[in-house]
Write a structure and sequence with these properties.
Blueprint: E1 2-9, H1 15-18, H2 23-31, H3 35-56, E2 86-93, E3 96-103, E4 107-113, H4 119-126, H5 129-137, H6 143-161, E5 172-174, E6 183-186, E7 196-199, E8 206-212, E9 218-223
Length: about 220
């Protein structure tokens, strides 16, 4: 059994939180134009540092991250804690910020606020053909929820593997929205196995999922 701790927090932006940002993070923080974007960013980094300090026993001000991409070596990868077996992933959308932490396996998490975006157009770019057929068969008032379930499952997988937008989402086939989350198949050079998926409980109007690169059963605990 592999334990995954999921921490939820509302966006906030206080002096103590900003005080934990490193120089590069402060520059990134200042580049955000909208206050809500600043709050989501600083909350994610504050949540990661405080939780990882508890997990590792390190002083919170000694928690530093690397962002090296595991595939090309550039500095656009997900944040990692060097020198430790603990992996983590961050995501935020609307008034939700989420952190997942696990030890001994790579993890990814994604949360999305359901919106009135053009689901049919996006489905062509995000979903495999079989997934598009499932989505089209849903009642019209269920398609937005169904699309976001698909999307967060795929985003979580690509965050766990570190591919991000470099891998085509249409090559990754996951289970239908009303079935337990699972990877059914993955075509192409980016494919990774084994992967465990789990849906989270972000509340009404949101979808969220986590992915772990393991074949062990997951024990998921949501906090906050």
């Amino acid at each position: 059994m592999l334990e995954c701790a999921v921490h939820w927090a509302p966006p906030a932006d206080g002096p103590r939180m900003r005080g934990l940002l490193d120089e590069a993070e402060r520059r990134r923080y200042e580049r955000f134009q909208r206050p809500e974007d600043k709050a989501r960013f600083v909350t994610g980094r504050f949540l990661a540092r405080t939780v990882l300090a508890d997990v590792t026993g390190l002083p919170v001000r000694d928690i530093g991250f690397t962002t090296d991409c595991p595939h090309c070596g550039a500095s656009h990868g997900k944040p990692r804690l060097p020198g430790h077996a603990v992996d983590f992933s961050l995501s935020h959308s609307g008034d939700r910020v989420v952190l997942v932490v696990a030890e001994g396996a790579e993890v990814g998490v994604d949360v999305e606020r359901e919106s009135d975006r053009d689901v049919d157009r996006l489905a062509e770019m995000v979903l495999a053909e079989a997934e598009r057929d499932v989505l089209a068969a849903l009642p019209p008032d269920e398609r937005r929820r169904g699309f976001h379930a698909y999307w967060t499952r795929k985003e979580a997988v690509l965050k766990a593997t570190g591919h991000g937008l470099a891998a085509p989402m249409t090559a990754l086939h996951v289970s239908p929205p009303d079935e337990p989350a699972a990877v059914l198949s993955w075509e192409g050079d980016a494919a990774v196995s084994p992967i465990r998926l789990a849906d989270l409980a972000p509340g009404p109007g949101y979808a969220a999922s986590l992915a772990v690169l393991t074949d062990r059963p997951l024990k998921v605990t949501e906090l906050g």
